[in-house]
Write a sequence for this structure.
């Protein structure tokens, strides 16, 4: 006799025969009915669980089996192991956003940030290098690097220091009776001046002070005193100074009087000039006499003659002194009441003739002329520049 599943209270049941009646036949077209066992009965286990499908969890699937349940009392007593931070579970808000993304929290020490080594970011936070940080989130997104835009120039970003200043102008000024100031001068230029220009003053150098941006030379005695016995030697030094500057590519541009009593002569960097010549000249205090110091030969011979032709019967003196001074003087009015020719007209004729001879006024230097132990007045030196006729 075959056994069917037990019914309520453990009695055997034949579904084809009710317990208190004749046998009943199952209706045609319907399957036999088997009542489900009550869970309280001690019966055999139900159907087997579905087997593990390995293909459903292939490469790329991030599957983690849930941890075994832990009782509340045990979880309170158990502490996280020392040396490693406990990983918090993912946030519910992050799980609600997408069901296809698995939250993978990253353990980060709150006292350290990317690029920090205990002394600063990248070990040199104040060096001018741009700082960068790595942004992370709770999703498996690629790391994004953000570069901080620095306010420094490109040089400070690459090297961390300010670029060295390279001036394009040199300043020269004459102070008092014996000082020469040179600003923004290079080391090589100062070396050449010491070897070529300073020895032109036979009295020698009294002191020389050199700083990072200026050189102050103090000559013995008074070279810039136009009433002194050696003023021609000082004028020869100035002429050689202008010639050397032109040969080295420093060309006179202008003179300014800002921040000090003596004007600064501005020399700008240009192409070296290897052909120009210089000579100096000056007027006396009344403007009646014009003196040329060591002029080129064609100017020495032509200037006086052309002035006499332009100003007939107005030139009273045209001669040479000390073998290198050409002196030209205009006539005065009777009773010494002024000049026969206005000073401005006299100067205009001189500049026009010199221009026709290839020379122009290039610069002027105000020097001093001592009259006595107390009083002195200015003496302006004119510097002419040109080329010899080819």
């Amino acid at each position: 006799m075959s056994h069917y599943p037990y019914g309520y209270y453990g009695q055997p049941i034949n579904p084809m025969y009710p317990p208190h009646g004749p046998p009943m036949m199952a209706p045609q077209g319907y399957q036999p009915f088997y009542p489900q066992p009550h869970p309280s009965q001690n019966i055999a286990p139900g159907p087997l669980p579905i087997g593990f499908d390995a293909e459903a969890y292939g490469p790329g699937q991030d599957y983690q089996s849930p941890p075994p349940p832990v009782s509340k009392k045990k979880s309170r007593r158990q502490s996280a192991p020392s040396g490693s931070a406990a990983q918090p579970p993912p946030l519910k808000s992050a799980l609600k956003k997408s069901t296809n993304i698995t939250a993978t929290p990253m353990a980060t020490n709150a006292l350290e940030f990317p690029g920090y080594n205990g002394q600063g970011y990248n070990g040199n936070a104040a060096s001018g290098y741009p700082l960068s940080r790595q942004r992370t989130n709770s999703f498996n997104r690629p790391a994004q690097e953000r570069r901080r835009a620095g306010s420094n120039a490109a040089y400070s970003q690459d090297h961390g220091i300010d670029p060295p200043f390279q001036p394009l102008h040199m300043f020269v000024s004459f102070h008092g009776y014996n000082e020469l100031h040179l600003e923004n001068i290079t080391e090589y230029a100062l070396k050449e001046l010491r070897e070529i220009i300073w020895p032109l003053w036979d009295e020698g150098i009294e002191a020389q002070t050199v700083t990072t941006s200026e050189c102050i030379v103090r000559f013995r005695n008074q070279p810039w005193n136009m009433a002194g016995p050696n003023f021609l030697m000082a004028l020869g030094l100035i002429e050689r100074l202008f010639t050397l500057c032109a040969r080295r590519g420093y060309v006179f541009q202008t003179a300014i009087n800002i921040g000090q009593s003596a004007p600064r002569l501005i020399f700008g960097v240009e192409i070296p000039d290897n052909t120009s010549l210089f000579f100096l000249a000056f007027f006396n205090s009344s403007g009646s006499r014009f003196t040329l110091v060591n002029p080129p030969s064609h100017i020495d011979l032509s200037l006086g003659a052309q002035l006499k032709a332009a100003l007939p019967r107005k030139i009273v003196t045209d001669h040479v002194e000390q073998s290198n001074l050409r002196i030209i003087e205009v006539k005065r009015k009777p009773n010494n009441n002024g000049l026969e020719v206005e000073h401005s007209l006299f100067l205009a004729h001189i500049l026009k003739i010199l221009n026709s001879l290839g020379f122009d006024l290039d610069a002027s230097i105000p020097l001093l002329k001592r009259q006595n132990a107390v009083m002195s007045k200015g003496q302006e030196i004119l510097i002419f520049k040109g080329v010899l006729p080819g």
